[in-house]
Design goal:
The protein is an alpha+beta fold. Helix content is 37%, strand content 36%. The chain has a single domain (2-93), classed as Alpha-Beta Plaits (2-Layer Sandwich). The protein is globular and about 40 Å long. GO terms for molecular function: monooxygenase activity.
Length: 99
């Protein structure tokens, strides 16, 4: 399994437009991307307008297909004017375990 943590930063004055874009990206990803196991956004408690997308993918091919998908490239381009900083994306190979 592939896990992604994408740290995203919205300009405060464009917060609502940024959130609308994140919602659209989440909906399109969950609807269209085979191999997507999870795709959720969360906001940092101590950094307003900072979000993390936690993603889980069946394999690297599924993640790469998502990154190349028209809905991803189009929505990402739409979000660019609302970003306060470039995304910090971390990708991991992971194995679920029980605690």
């Amino acid at each position: 399994m592939i896990t992604v943590h994408a740290y995203l930063h919205a300009l405060p004055e464009h917060r609502e437009a940024y959130l609308d874009g994140l919602r659209a990206l989440q909906a399109a990803t969950l609807e269209h991307d085979t191999g997507c196991l999870a795709y959720r956004f969360w906001e940092a408690l101590d950094e307003p307008n900072t979000f993390i997308c936690v993603e889980a993918w069946a394999d690297i091919a599924a993640l790469n297909a998502h990154l190349d998908a028209p809905h991803h490239t189009e929505i990402a381009a739409h979000l660019d004017p609302y970003r306060a900083a470039p995304a910090d994306v971390q990708v991991f190979e992971s194995t679920p375990i029980s605690l």
